[in-house]
Amino acid sequence: MESVATGDVRNGEQDIISWFEDVAENASHVQTQTLSRILELNSGVEYLKKWMGDINVQEMEASALESLYTSSVPLASHADLETYIQRIADGDTSPILTNQPITTLSLSSGTTEGRQKYVPFTCHSSQTTLQIFQFAAAYRSRVYPIRPGGRILEFIYSSKRFKTKGGIIAGTATTHYFASEEFKIKQEKTKSFTCSPEEVISSGDYKQSTYCHLLLGLHFHYEVEFLTSTFAYSIVQAFRAFEELWRNLCNDIREGTVSSRISLPKMRKSVSNIISPNPGLASWIEASCRELEDRDWYGLIPKLWPNAKYVYSIMTGSMQPYLKKLRHYAGDLPLVSADYGSTESWIGANIDPSSPPENVTFTVIPTFSYFEFIPLYRQNQNCVNSSIDDFIEDDPVPLSQVKIGQEYEIVLTTFTGLYRYRLGDVVEVAGFHRGTPKLNFVCRRKLILTVNIDKNTEKDLQCVVERVSQLLAKAKTKAELVDFTSHADVANQPGHYIIYWEIKGEADDEVLAECCNEMDASFVDQGYIVSRKTNSIGPLELCIVDGETFKKILEHFIGKGAAFSQFKTPRCTDDEVLLRILNDCTIKRFYSTAYG
Fold first, then answer.
1. Rounded to two decimals, what is the model's pTM?
2. How many C-beta atoms surround the C-beta of residue 4 within 10 A?
C-alpha cells in the first residue's frame, strides 16, 4: 500500500508536470506575458527610462510592449551594465535596475572570464532555483523513482560571503541558495534529505567538507538514493580523495570518531552528533575497498551505495572531460545531466533524464526569463582573412521563431534587472517540446585559442584533447589524463599553442611525443592549418605538469573567493599567476613535428 508521503510527493510531481506541459504548449504567449511582468515590476527604473522614456507600461498591450522593448533597448554585455551594478554595490538605493531593492549580489565563478563579476540576486533567484529543482526531480522520478525520506549524498560547498562598500551581501549564487529558506523547502517538498548538515556545507574549507561529506555518506550508505554536485568535477575530485582517505574514513566509522584532520570546531561537533561506532559497517566498507582497489575503483559508487539510482550533476560543456572518470566510478549506474542555467538565470531543464550526458537537451522554461536568440553562422572555413570573431550574427529572434539545427547566442531579460543581456553561450536548437525549444549546449562564445588567423573554441580544444588522450590508455603503461588547460603564446614569435596535461600513472616519452604530434595535426580550423604550413604559427607544445598542479589552480581560485562547487578549470588562460603555476610545475616538454 502506498504511503501518504509517497502519494503526496507523486501528486505534487504530477501537478508540476501538468503545469509545465500547459506552459510549453503556449510558450510564445507565456514569453510575451513574462516580459510584460518584468517591465511592469521594473517600470520607471533608471536603465529602462534611458531607452524607453516615460511610457506607461501598464497601459500598453503586451505584444506592442514586446515590440517597443526589443526595438528600443539595445543588446548589452556585462561591461555595459557594470557601472550600474557597481553603484548598487557601493550603496546607491535608487531604482537603477529594479524597483525591488537589491540586497544581495552573486559572484560568477571567474574561471571562464578570468575575473569574478557581480550579478544581481533577489528572492526570485532562489525561488526559480527551488522551482527548477522540483521540476527536474518530477521528471527524473518518472524514470528513476526514489524512496521518500531517503538521503542524497550531495557534494555541495558554500564559500565565504562578504559585504560590499555599500553594505550589500556578496557571494556565489550557490552560497546564497544553500543559505536560503528555499534550500530547506526543497528537501521537504521532494522528501529527500542531504546527508550533511549546514556546518559541513558552509565550512569554507573544501577539503574538510569533502571528508565529512564522504564520512556522512558512508554513515547513511544504505539510505542514499542518488549522488549529486553542482558540477561533475566536484564528484570526481571527491572520489579521487576517497582513494587516499578510505582507511581514515573506515577508522572513524568503526570508532564513531571524527578524524583529527577536521579542525573546524562547529563542523566537528555537527558530524560527531550524527555518527556513532559501527564496527560492522566499517568492516564491510574495508572489505569493499580492498576489492575496489584491485579493479582500480571501477564501480565504486554502486558498490558502496547499493540503493543509489543515479548520479546527477552538470556534465556538459567544460565538464565533459570528467565524464570518463565519473563513468568509471559509477559503473553501470546512470549518469543524469543536471539542468542548464547560469549565475544570471536558469534557462532549461533536462526532461529526458535517460539520455546520456553527451546527447542531453535542455527544454527552455518560458516563465523564468524573457529569452531572445541571436542567429549565428559559422565563418567559411576557406575564408582565412575573416574577422577575429568565429561567427557571423543576424538580428535576434524571439523564442517562437528559432529553427531546428540553427546555432544561437542566448540573450536574457531577467526579473533581477538584466535587460537584453548577452549571455555568451552558444546553443543549437535540437527540437521542440510542444511550443518551447530544446537546446544543445555547444560552447562559450568567446574564442579561447587564437594566435594569427586561427579560431579554436573550447569545444574544438576538448574534442582534440579527448581524442588524442585515448593514446594514453592504449599504451603499455595505461596512464590517464586527469585535467588540462591551454595558452596561446604570442610573446614569442612565431606564436604557438601550449597544452598543459596532468596525467596519473607513467607514460613513455614516445607516447607523449606522439600525443603532441597528434594534437597539432587534429585542429581542423583552416586558419590554423594554413598558419602551421606557412610557419606563421609555431609547433604545438605539450607540457606535462606534476600531480598537484590543478589542485594549486583550484586553491588559487578559492583563495580569491570562488566556491569549490562552482569551480571550472579554465580551458585556456592568459592569467599570469596561473601560467606561473603551470610553468613552475612543468616536468616535461614536447614540441610537435607534425608539420615538419
1. 0.83
2. 8
